[in-house]
Structure formats: C-alpha cells, structure tokens
Amino acid sequence: NTQRIVLPDTGRQCKDWKQAPTVYSRNRIQTAKYTWVTFLPRNLLRQFHRLGNLYFFFLVVLNWFPQVEVFHREITMLPLLVVLLFSMIKDAVQDYRKYQYDKTINFTKTRVYDK
C-alpha cells in the first residue's frame, strides 16, 4: 500500500511533505454557474431578480387584459424578449469560457512524490 502526495508543479518543493495528510479531498475547480440542464431556469431566475426586467414583465402581463391594453401584446413583449435573449447569450458565452478555463486548470500536470 503506497501513499502518494500530489503537489502543484510550481518549481518549489514542499519541505514538510512527509507531514501532509494521507486522505485527500477532490482538487477540482469549478467556477462555471450552469450546466446544460440548469441553464434556462437558473438564468431566468437571475434575470428576473433585476428590477428593470420585472417592470417590463409587469407591463406584458398588464397588456393581456383588454381593459388596460395600450399597445399590441406582441409589441409590449418585444423589449423584454430582446433584453432576455441578449443577456442569455452573453451569460452562456461567459459561462462556456469559464468551463473551458476550469477544464484547463483541472488537467494541469502536477508532480507526484511517492514515499
């Protein structure tokens, strides 16, 4: 039964590597917020935390009532849909970049010291 210690390859050697714990937790970095399954619900929840988006959603809901309708229903929905669509695209691109960076960091080579 050999034990091993995995240290990042920074060029420096740890002086007290024999005193390091033998049980390790996962050393995985994850900064991405979304997965394919959770993107739409979590992103919509984040979008509707913004006051401006709630305001436009309130106008869309009000326009569905004939007594209050000022514009056509489709015209009232257009600004909200455009803002939500562009924000979703921006968030998806940023999260994909974070995922790629996490993947790069997680597969960086390290030195392994065996006892």
Task: Characterize the structure shown.
The chain contains three helices and two strands, in the order E-H-H-H-E. The mean pLDDT is 80. With 115 residues, it is mainly α. The longest helix has 34 residues, at 73-106. It has helices at 39-47, 51-62, 73-106; strands spanning 4-8, 110-114. It has a domain at 36-107. The radius of gyration is 25 Å and the shape is rod-shaped. The protein is 48% helix and 9% strand. It has a two-stranded antiparallel ribbon with strand order 1-2.
Q: What structural class results from the helix and strand content?
A: mainly alpha
Following the backbone from N to C, one meets helices and strands in this order, namely EHHHE
Strand content: 5-15%
Work out the helix count.
3
The low-pLDDT segments are none
Please state the average pLDDT score: 80
Largest sheet: 2 strands, antiparallel
User: Helix amount, in percent?
Assistant: 40-55%
Radius of gyration: 25 Å
Termini separation comes to 10 Å
How many strand segments? Answer: 2
Q: Which strand order do you get reading across the main beta sheet?
A: 1-2
Q: Judging from the principal axes of the Cα atoms, what is the shape?
A: rod-shaped
